[in-house]
Design goal:
By secondary structure, the protein is an alpha/beta fold. 43% of the residues lie in helices and 13% in strands.
């Protein structure tokens, strides 16, 4: 092929790349979905905290685990939206529940696939690869939210409602967000106030969260819960510190961070473990 024709062919291939080969979902227990080109990259070790150490969120933890086990065993289950306070373990819970479900149902071949919010327009292509696979797949989108002119939410309907084809029977969708309705409250109120038909102006976006069968709320933790989280970490990794010192340092750490949360508890414990010369085995 001559030089100009070769360049034209290369340009056309970049514009319309070859379709992705069938993914090997047995290559790992978790994957990350990427585009340009489409691919599922296996994750050798998922960064997560053990299920039993997720304290202060017992109801959400048990509900999501039960839903996940139903799905893993081929029973009906719901898409789940984990919403609420920052740093209270929403994404940690999804990853921990996946591992716990594998431990309790080792033959279920449950896979976790993370998809970025900006890649949601490609979700139909991903679903085509997953439809009919022998594995059960949880699609996971962390920190999901939409701005005023964001159209990505339309792509999400493909996995929540399924369109004419229906959602693949072997696919479930879990998302985390700081917002229950996936868009800022002031934006919702502004659209209602300025629209010609206020009741219709935001219904399409606001009702998106209604398409999740499970709403699991996460709220700021109190001091007792915060200290219990740290005690649990210390016991799990054998960090032995006098109780009075531990309590005083933990409370001071939270004060300097401006609040208490599961994330703040973990950050304090990482600092404490480092000062005590303790390695945190099993945590990526």
């Amino acid at each position: 092929m001559s030089g100009p024709l070769s360049r034209i062919a290369a340009a056309l291939e970049r514009m319309s790349p070859a379709p992705m080969p069938a993914p090997d979902l047995d290559a790992a227990e978790a994957f990350v979905w990427h585009v340009a080109p489409d691919r599922l990259d296996p994750v050798a070790q998922v960064s997560r905290i053990p299920f039993d150490l997720l304290l202060g969120i017992d109801r959400a933890r048990d509900t999501l685990l039960a839903n996940t086990l139903q799905f893993a065993r081929g029973l009906p289950a719901n898409n789940a939206l984990l919403w609420g306070a920052r740093g209270m373990g929403k994404s940690s819970l999804v990853k921990a529940v996946h591992a716990e479900a594998l431990a309790r149902a080792p033959d279920c071949r449950l896979r976790l696939v993370e998809i970025q919010r900006e890649d949601l327009p490609s979700i139909q292509r991903l679903l085509r690869h997953l439809r009919g696979a022998a594995q059960r797949v949880i699609l996971f989108c962390d920190d999901l939210s939409f701005s005023h002119d964001d159209q990505h939410y339309k792509s999400l309907k493909a996995v929540l409602d399924g369109g004419i084809e229906g959602r693949p029977e072997n696919v479930l969708f879990y998302a985390t967000s700081n917002r229950r309705h996936l868009m800022p409250r002031d934006m919702i109120e502004n659209e209602r106030a300025t629209a010609i038909s206020p009741s219709e102006a935001t219904e399409e976006k606001v009702s998106l969260s209604d398409r999740f069968g499970l709403w699991l709320g996460f709220h700021p933790c109190g001091q007792d819960e915060y200290l219990a989280m740290i005690d649990g970490y210390c016991a799990a990794w054998g960090v032995d510190v006098p109780e009075t010192r531990l309590r005083a340092e933990a409370i001071e750490w939270a004060a300097t961070r401006g609040g208490r949360s599961g994330r703040v508890a973990w950050q304090f414990f990482c600092d404490l473990a480092g000062r005590e010369g303790r390695r945190l085995e099993g945590v990526a």
